[in-house]
Amino acid sequence: MTRLEGKVALVTGGARGIGRAICEAYVAEGAKVAVADRLAHEATQAAAALGPNAMAVTMDVTDMDQIDQGVASVEARWGGIDILVNNAGVFNMGPLEEVTHADYRLQYDVNVGGTIFATQAVVPGMKARGRGGVIINFSSQAGRRGEANVMMYCSTKAAVISVTQSLALELAPAGIRVNALAPGVVDTPMWDVVDGLFAKYEAKPVGQKKREVGLAVPMGRMGTPEDLAGPCVFLASEEARYITAQTLNVDGGNWMS
């Protein structure tokens, strides 16, 4: 499998969950991969497990200096970046009366700002090399519709869809394709946090919400990180060379569009 042979990818939030699965799939397809994560130790461990075609990058996507330094380190080592996967994200929920400005800032700075400013840091190098490039952003089924007590997260993921469309139009003349993925419910460590919050706000036993959402998926189960890795390979490959400005639902049939 060498669909990404000769390509260099930077994956934010790459140390665990969906990001880790994407890094593994990209290396398996022949790419060199920068595992970018604010959890420096976990990024180092992940990169070591992936072998010589992976490197660790410490990157908090709310920190402009870390973004710039991380991108520069990848370009210095491997000559440039062909693929950026904006996977880093955070989740919180609560009713309107509990919304705080600090939480608003965190979710927007990571989920939306991280996508914008990581892209801003990578694009000049893509343009300078003249080889085009691929940007893959992570939205969510939550960006397709609202949900009670999840206003902030849903709105950030809706914003990612809009950002994806606008950037795709702006960057198309440079041969840079921009698409997004909209996962449904995916069984990752983050969903254990999500389940705990739903337990709090919906007065359910811990674990019940997770079971309910899995059973509600038309395909009968929650997704896995590997279910997202395949579409990420496809969107980064030449097979998707005429696809841009799209948000692909990868959710077992939860949302139809």
What is this structure's SSE topology?
Blueprint: E1 8-12, H1 17-28, E2 32-37, H2 40-50, E3 54-58, H3 64-78, E4 83-86, H4 101-129, E5 133-138, H5 151-171, E6 176-183, H6 189-202, H7 208-216, H8 225-236, E7 247-250
Parallel strand pairs: 1-2, 1-4, 2-3, 4-5, 5-6, 6-7
Keywords, separated by commas or semicolons:
globular; alpha/beta; 257 residues
Shape estimate:
globular
Q: Count of helical segments?
A: 8
The arrangement of helices and strands along the chain is EHEHEHEHEHEHHHE
How many strands?
7
Major sheet description: 7 strands, parallel
Q: Strand sequence of the main sheet, in spatial order?
A: 3-2-1-4-5-6-7
Rounded mean pLDDT is 97
This entry's quaternary arrangement is single chain
Beta-strand fraction estimate: 5-15%
Spans with pLDDT under 50 lasting ≥5 residues?
none
How much is the radius of gyration in Å?
Answer: 18 Å
Would you tell me the structural class of the helices and strands? alpha/beta
Helix content: 40-55%
Span of the ends, CA to CA: 31 Å
